[in-house]
């Protein structure tokens, strides 16, 4: 199961973190649920680029 609004969610969380801590996170850890073993590669291929798209301009 892919998260449809992942890009917006990640951006909102990163901006909130930066506002509260006055710094950018050094690392991100994502816990995913609802992904079967057969869907795992597809989720990685679709979601990692969305996360990277948010991180590059920051």
From TrEMBL:
Pfam families per UniProt: Piwi (PF02171)
PROSITE patterns found in the cross-reference section: PIWI (PS50822)
Gene3D superfamilies, sorted: Ribonuclease H-like superfamily/Ribonuclease H
Residue ranges of domain Piwi in the record: 1-58
GO terms of molecular function: nucleic acid binding
SUPFAM superfamilies xref list: Ribonuclease H-like
Name listed for the protein in its UniProt record: Piwi domain-containing protein
Originating organism: Aegilops tauschii subsp. strangulata (Goatgrass)
